[in-house]
TrEMBL record:
InterPro entries for this protein: ATPase_AAA-3 (IPR011703), CbbQ/NirQ/NorQ/GpvN (IPR050764), ChlI/MoxR_AAA_lid (IPR041628), P-loop_NTPase (IPR027417)
Protein name (Swiss-Prot/TrEMBL): MoxR-like ATPase
Keyword Iron: no
Similarity annotation: Belongs to the MoxR family.
Originating organism: Soonwooa buanensis
Pfam family, one: AAA_lid_2
Any one GO molecular function term: ATP hydrolysis activity
Record flagged with keyword ATP-binding: yes
Domain ChlI/MoxR AAA lid per the UniProt entry, residue ranges: 261-327
Keywords linked to the UniProt accession: ATP-binding, Nucleotide-binding
All residue ranges annotated as the ATPase AAA-3 domain in the record: 54-184
Amino acid sequence: MSELNQSEDIKNLMEKVKEQNYFFNLLKQEINRAIIGQEYMVDRLLIGLLGNGHVLLEGVPGLAKTLAIKTLAEAVHGQFSRIQFTPDLLPADVVGTMIYNVKENDFSIKKGPVFANFVLADEINRAPAKVQSALLEVMQEKQVTIGDETMQLPKPFLVLATQNPIDQEGTYLLPEAQTDRFMLKCKIDYPELEDERKIMRMISTQDIPTIRPVISLDQIVEAKKLINQIYLDEKIEKYILDMVFATRYPEKYGLADLKNLINFGASPRASINLAIASRANAFIKGRAFVIPEDVKSIAKDVLRHRIGLSFEAEAEEVSQDEIVDRILAKIQAP
């Protein structure tokens, strides 16, 4: 393809991006009416929505994690369900089960709460491994098997999970196979002082806004198709791959001091999700092409839960975020 044709294609794509981006700006504005001072979290939820990837939110209680997810669902014409994960939860409570119908003398399927567009898995690390594994097929295959029947989940389908990092009593650590299925793991921090003042006034005066649906599921599906067309240059692709491979073979990238800190590196899902998330971030910013800043801004969220720390790293209190920072500093952006 000639440079002239490529330039023309990007120009045409830019027009489509601006048209679709307008609706997502409306969606963001509507969410921000209820969620104050958490722009990072809102952006990551939108990236997950556009990139068709699940999002894990980690933060102390009271940071509006659950409210943000519920608000996103309310601002979209879609089905929303919430599952409060507890130690006594059963897989059937999540995906559904077979129920015997006495009148018809036959079994019928009762669908679980995962049959929705947006599924909030609240405090996901409070459920045992058996329940967590029930989500594996749901999250990866976008389908549920009950008895001998396999049923497709509605589109779009998004699992948005929360977990509390400080209260570890009665919790079950999420296995690597489970966390790897989340496109993003976002660490949510406290709001700024002025933002918290606004929150305090809004709640104390009961001036809580009613969220209106501002975007349809069809518009979301159309925007998702557009995400796949966002231009990703070969140099950006190499930048993404170098970043992911540096978590596996740090010594090859002049980061030999990281080798003893990393037990295992990021999986191929990291490369896939980093490319998709970078495209989604470019779309949110109103661009039809990905730049290095898109990759850098989303790198920690894609990589932090895919890097296994060694005992040495834990002893030295080195975090995944620090490792990603060192990789970003070492690998030259195109």
